[in-house]
What we know:
The chain has 98 residues and is mostly helical. The protein has three helices and two strands.
Amino acid sequence: MSELGILVLKLGSLFTGVIEIYIWVIIITALLSFVNPDPYNPIVQFLYRITNPAYSFVRGLIKTNFNGLDLAPLIIIIALQVVVILGEYVFSLIAKML
C-alpha cells in the first residue's frame, strides 16, 4: 500500500474517532436528561448546544416521543453507527485503489 493509501486510512480513522466521540456525547446528554441537571452549568450548556441540532433534525423528520420516552438519541446513534461502518468501508476501498 502506498503512503497516500496509508494517509487515507488515517483520515478514515480520524473520521471514525470524531463520530464515536459524538456518539458518547449523545449518550451522556441522554443520561443527563434523566437527572435534570442545572441548566446554567457550562458543561451542560455545551452538551445541549452540540446535540440539540441533531435532535431537532430527527424530531422534525420522525415522531420520536413515545409515552414520554424520547427515542431521538437512539435513532441518531444507530444512524451514526451506519455512517461509521460505511465510512470505514469507503476509506478502505479508496486506500486499496491508491
